[in-house]
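Cross-posting from the chemistry board since nobody answered there.

I work mostly on the small-molecule side, so proteins are not my area. We synthesized magnesium ion and want a rough idea of how it might sit in this target. Sequence and SMILES are below. Is it possible to get a predicted 3D structure of the two together?
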Amino acid sequence: MPRSRSRRPAERRSAPGRTPAPRATPLAGTNVERDRDPKAVLLDLDDTLVLEESHAMAQIRATARLVGVDPYVWEKAVISNARGAWHSHELSDVCRELGISSWEGLWATFEGCHPRLAPVKDLVETYRARVWSTALREVGQESVRDGDLVQELSRTYVASQRAGHPLAPGARLLVERARAVGPIALVTNGPPDVQRLKLSQTAMAEMFDAVVISGELGLGKPDPEVFHHATRSLGVAHDRAVMVGDSWERDIEGALEAGLRAVWLSHGRPAPKSDARVATARSAGEVVFD
Ligand SMILES: [Mg+2]
């Protein structure tokens, strides 16, 4: 059973040269219990291995310098307009199901998409122009008539997102520990092009035996078939796999529904419910597997 060292202070978790934590106590010595040990690990990407939402918000705030307004006022204007537009277009239900966010719609190319999602390519340019221009109007910038500024805002945001995402604290340690368990799969919701780019920028892509992306599969977490697709790809029974992720609804409830066990990265949030099949860790570096 996976467990976490949740009492370890977060600010000390990555200190170099620290004595490794003692190994977890084995569940038991019998073959029956040993047979319950996890044999494969599925890992979420966004806000599990890389910082995603906070990074996206920071990059939106960074574009405020082009507009000359308070970055937080600007972030609020951009995000509120992005959400409104993203959840009202003709493919919004598919995007919601596949877990593709409004701010991903501001920079993804949507190349390599499943046919269910592919038509979104035809509407993102209009979507982006609408978001940036409406946000400009909302903060009282008459330059909304200046199409060059709208284009510059969009280009700047896309370039900053494509430049890379910070690794989550302890992410590499988590992946190394997962590999010590058995084969590992990345199981992530998002557009294929941005998820594959983010993974490649972690320099850990070669460590994964399988990569499952909702935008490619045409199904998203928490659909149990997503988890079963991953365990089949790894060649393990789904009840021998454990899912690690930060979304209770998509990662944890989905994994449990699929018959897996799970580790929830709480980032300090209280668990919505208690479940013996779920271990909780505050961050990636605190997850250990017995
Ligand atoms: Mg996540």
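Reply from a structural biologist on the board:
Welcome over. Reading the output above for you: Strands lie at 2-4, 40-43, 184-188, 210-213, 241-245, 261-265, 278-281, 287-289. The pocket of magnesium ion is lined by residues 44, 46-48, 245-247 (CB under 6 Å). Happy to explain the token format if needed.
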